[in-house]
Amino acid sequence: MRGKRIRLVTGLATALALALTGCGGGGGDQLGGGGTEVTVDQNAQFEPGTTMANLKQQGTIRIGTKFDQPLFGLKGLDGKPQGFDVEIGKIIAGRLGIAPDRIEWVEAPSKTREEIIEQGRVDMVVATYTINDARKQRISFAGPYYEAGQDIMVRSDDNRITGPESLRPTGAKVCSVTGSTPAEEIKKYVDEANLVLFDVYSKCADALRTGQVQAVTTDNVILLGLVEQSGGQFKLVEKPFTSEPYGIGIKKGDVKFCEFINQALTQASQDGSYAKAWQATAGKVAKQTPPLPQLDPCS
């Protein structure tokens, strides 16, 4: 994990946002995508041979995202993913001149994100993807576009677990997802024999519901969606203990694509489309719209 950042996301209420929002861009057409409107920059011009030029020419883009993450990336009844990550992907596609209906959404579970980037199965990944040094050995990141904090979810009637320091003394079994940063971070607070790993967080929620584990840990924004889906069975401890900068994963060393994405994020922050994307998704439950974090240099 990168160095700790000061800002953590707090004050989120427990609710599920499935709505999508529009995102801006100059000189384009307003086109719908899953009930949303986005501005597609039809006049976008790029240096020949760059990833941007190639994507603009083919008129399509493959974006990896989560399909089971309420608020950020959840596959809806119409078969299309919805959430803040999805909106960020649509903003970037729009800056490339690619309409929402020309995006191919690829499921990107935590344990396969680097693999699908390296294999060229996606053009980028926007999937609650924490930037860290280990991942930078294999892929490059643009962003960050958001900062979350790791927290703990328990059953609503459980008052023994009050934070990460209470996990080992209570002998709690804790669930997280294979290959995720939270799964590594929680090892500081729980014996490895009591760490249960699945491929998706929905299985962790099922394990908590049936009493196979006593806690689930990941980023707070992910847990909030699971809390909402639980129908009152779960609650958040609300003691975030890390800072998780979410980045956009791309092929390693593609500096020009990274710089383009960072420019698109900056423009979205300036023209209000970033805020609109948040307010129509995670902002349905958040009291404050977060600012775009300081962007890392591309390398």
UniProtKB/TrEMBL annotation:
InterPro entries: Bact_solute-bind_prot3 (IPR051455), Solute-binding_3/MltF_N (IPR001638)
Keyword Signal: yes
Signal peptide coordinates: 1-19
GO terms (BP aspect): amino acid transport
Keywords linked to the UniProt accession: Signal, Transport
Tree of life domain: Bacteria
Entry GO CC: extracellular region; outer membrane-bounded periplasmic space
Ranges for domain Solute-binding protein family 3/N-terminal: 60-285
The family this protein is said to belong to: Belongs to the bacterial solute-binding protein 3 family.
Name the record gives this protein: Solute-binding protein family 3/N-terminal domain-containing protein
Protein source organism: Saccharopolyspora thermophila
